[in-house]
Amino acid sequence: MKTEINQDIHAALAAIKDRKITHVFLVACGGSLSIMHPGKYFLDRHSSALTSDVYNGDEFVTRDPRKLGPSSLVVLCSQTGTTKETARAAAHARAKGAFTIAMTLDPASPLGTAAERVVAYQASYTTGVPIDAADSNYGVLYMILAGLIRQVEGVDVVDSLLKSLSALQPAIDKAHLVYADRFDAFAAQFSQAPVIYTLASGANYGAAYSFAICVFMEMLWINSQAIHADEFFHGPFEVVDKDAKFVCMIGLDETRRLEERARDFLYRFGSKENVLVLDARELDLDGIDEAFQGYLVPLIFFDTLWKFAYKLADQRGTVILEDRRYMKKISDY
Amino acid sequence: MKTEINQDIHAALAAIKDRKITHVFLVACGGSLSIMHPGKYFLDRHSSALTSDVYNGDEFVTRDPRKLGPSSLVVLCSQTGTTKETARAAAHARAKGAFTIAMTLDPASPLGTAAERVVAYQASYTTGVPIDAADSNYGVLYMILAGLIRQVEGVDVVDSLLKSLSALQPAIDKAHLVYADRFDAFAAQFSQAPVIYTLASGANYGAAYSFAICVFMEMLWINSQAIHADEFFHGPFEVVDKDAKFVCMIGLDETRRLEERARDFLYRFGSKENVLVLDARELDLDGIDEAFQGYLVPLIFFDTLWKFAYKLADQRGTVILEDRRYMKKISDY
Question: Ranges for the SIS domain (chains A, B) (predicted)?
Fold first, then answer.
C-alpha cells in the first residue's frame, strides 16, 4: 500500500505551490473524458475554493473559456496519448498561461510531451496482469485532485484515498464472482437487442457514459445512450416498454436515491429480465473507507462489466477490441 | 423592440448588486435543463469573473456542491413550475444562503414561489400566437446572464442581445420556408426508424439534447441520444452504416468546425438521405448581430424542428403532445 501520492504527481503539484489556482479544467475525449465526471464530482463535494469544468478536447479549444489563464490547472487524459484533440487542448491551455498536467500510458506520446507535466498511469489490458488500482487512470486522477485540495485548502483525504485504493483490487475480484451468473443470463437475454441504455447519476455517470459510447456503440455496434437517472423521468422514460433493455448502476454516493428511483420504475413498467442492475450494496468493500466507496464503486462496476461485454460479444458473434469499421482503420476523417 | 432588459430581471439583479456573486448554478430538468447549456456557453465566452455549472435539479440537491453559498446565484427553470426536483433545488439553494431566480410560465407555481425572485417567460404553445423572442425561455435566460455580466464585470452586450432578439422571429419565419420541403422528405424517410440520433456542439448542444429526449424519446418513442459532435469520433461513430439516421445541427458559434466534421463523416460513410442537416449558413439572419448569431441559431433550429416532429408523427401515426405512457398519466413514481 502506498503511503503517499506518486512522486510525479507530487512534483507536478509542488510546481504550482505558489500559484493561486482557482479553477480546474478536466479535458479529454471519449472513454478518457468519462473518468473526468467522477473527478468533478469529487471536487464539487470536497472543495469550496476550486471550481471546475469537464470538456471534450475540441470543445475546450474552440469554446476557449474566457476564464482560462494562469490561475487554471488543466488536467488532460488520453490512454495512448495520441488523441489529437486532447494534445491540441494541452497546447492551447499552455498558450493561455494555464498549468497543464497530462495523464497517459505513454509519457513520450504527443499528449505526454505537449503538457508541462506528465503523469503516467497503467491499464491491465496493456500490462496483461491486474495493476495496483492506485496506478489506474481513476486512481491517478483522484490522487491529483486530492493532492491539489490538500495543497490549496488544507482538506486532507489523501490517507483515506490511498488506503481505499489499496483495498480496491480484492473488492473487484470478489465482485466478478457476484456478477458471473447474472452476466451469463443477461448476455443471452440481451443478445439480439438493437438498443441497450445505461443509467446512472453522480460519481457513476462517467462509467455509464463510457460503457454506452465505448463498449455498446463502439465495440458492439449496439445503439445506446447513458441516461442520467433523474433526467430519465423528464423524457427518456417514455421509451420504456416490457422489451426495453437497461444496465442500471446503483452506487453509494449521495445521489443513490436517484438511481434507486429509476430502477424501481424500470422494474415496475419494464421487465426484470431486461434490467441488469448492479447494486453496490451487494459488494464486499472491505477496507475501502466509507467516504471513498461512492468514488470507487464506478471502477468496480466498469471493471466487472468488461466481462459482460465479452459474454455479450460471444452471443452476438462479434470480436470485442477488434471489430471496428472506422477507428484505427480509416485515418483521413 | 425592447431597449432594456425586462423589469423583473432588472429588479432581481438589482437585489444582488452589493453581493459578490462569483458562481452561477444553472439548474433544471429535461427540456428546461437543455437551455442551460447555451447559457453556460454564453457565460464561458463572456465572463472571466464568473464560473458556472449546469445541473439536473435532483443531482444538484444530492451532490450538494461545497461551493454553494452566499456568493452563488442559482437560476432555475421549469415551464409549468411544478417540476418537484427543481422546486426542491430552489429551497435547497436558499437554505445554503444562495440567491435564487426562478424562470417559469407560472409565477404562482411551486417553483415560482420557492425562489427569492421569479421571472416569467412565455411559450407560443400556451399563448397560441408567436411570442416576442425576448420573452421566451432562452431570451429571458440570456437577458439574466447578460445583465449579470454587465453588473459584475462591466462587459455590456445587452444592446446587441436585445437588438438580435427583436430580429429573431422574422428569421424563424423565414427558416420554416427553407426547411419545409426537406422536412417532408426526411419525415417520410425516417418514418420507420427505430433509432434517430441528434448531433451538435457548443451553443447547439442543448437543442440537440432536448430534441433527443423530449421529442424523439418522449413524444415519438423513438430511441435516441444527443451525441456531442467531437465525442462522436470517440466511440459513437462505429454505429454508423448506410441506414443510420441522424439530425445534424451546424451552427455559427466557435465550435462550428466540430459539427462540420461530423456531418462530413456522416455524408461519407452514411447516406445523405439519412442525414438531416440544418446548417445555419442557409438562413437569413438579417438584423441579428454577428456576435449573437451562434447563441440564437439553436432557437431557430428547435422552433423549426417542431414542424419536423409533427410531420414525423403523422407518418408514424402518433399524436405528438398527447401520446404518453407515463408522464402526467401515472403520478406515483
Answer: 12-158
Which residue range is the domain that position A108 belongs to?
Answer: 7-163
Q: Does B214 touch chain A (CB under 8 A)?
A: yes
Decide if A333 touches B, using CB distance below 8 A.
Answer: yes
Q: What is the pLDDT of residue A243?
A: 97
Q: Are residues A143 and A210 in the same domain?
A: no
Q: Which of residues 45-104 of B touch A (CB under 8 A)?
A: 45-48, 51, 53, 56-59, 62-67, 69, 83, 85
Are the C-beta atoms of residues B138 and B35 closer than 8 Å to each other? yes
In this structure, what C-alpha cell is assigned to residue B289? 448581430
Identify whether B285 is part of a domain: yes
Residue type, A191: S
Select from A225, A245, A267 the residue whose CB has the most chain B CBs within 10 Å, as the one to mutate to test that interface: A225
Closest partner residue to B59 (CB to CB) among A64, A258, A261 is A258
Residues A210 and A257 in one domain: yes
d(CA A292, CA A164): 7
Last residue of a domain, one of B121, B137, B163: B163
Dihedrals phi, psi of A23, to nearest 5 degrees: -140, 140
Kindly state whether residues B235 and B194 are assigned to the same domain. yes
**What cell was used for B145?**
446572464
Instruction: Give A76's strand partners.
Output: A27, A102
- Spatial contact of A186 and A308, defined as CB atoms under 8 Å apart: yes
ipTM > 0.90 for the complex: yes
Count up the domains in chain B and report the number: 2
**A227-252: pLDDT as tens digits:** 999 999 999 999 999 999 999 999 99
Within 10 angstroms of residue B18's Cβ, the number of other Cβ atoms is: 6
- Measured between CA atoms, the residue of chain A closest to residue B231 is A30
What is the number of other CB atoms lying within 10 angstroms of the CB of residue A123? 12
Are residue A118 and residue A28 in the same domain, yes or no? Answer: yes
A239 to chain B, any CB pair closer than 8 A? The answer is yes
Is B40 a member of any domain?
Answer: yes
State the nearest Cα–Cα gap between B230 and chain A, in angstroms.
7
For cell 454577428, what's the residue?
B290
B95 and B193 belong to one structural domain: no
- Indicate the residue among A130, A163, A196 that finishes a domain: A163
Reading phi first (left if > 0) and then psi (alpha if -120 to 50, else beta), residue B167 is in alpha
Q: Are residues A131 and A195 in the same domain?
A: no
Buried b (16+ CB within 10 A) or exposed e, B104-126: bbbbebbbbebbbbbbbbbeeee
Same domain, B157 and B17: yes
For residues B159 and B185, state if they share a domain.
no
Give the SS3 label for residue A303. Answer: helix
Helix (H, G, I), strand (E, B) or coil at B71: coil
Between CA A193 and CA A191 the distance in angstroms is 6
Euclidean distance between CA atoms B52 and A297, whole angstroms: 27
pLDDT tens for each residue of A15-49: 999 999 999 999 999 999 999 999 999 999 999 99
Q: What is the pLDDT of residues B278-314, one digit of tens each?
A: 999 999 999 999 999 999 999 999 999 999 999 999 9
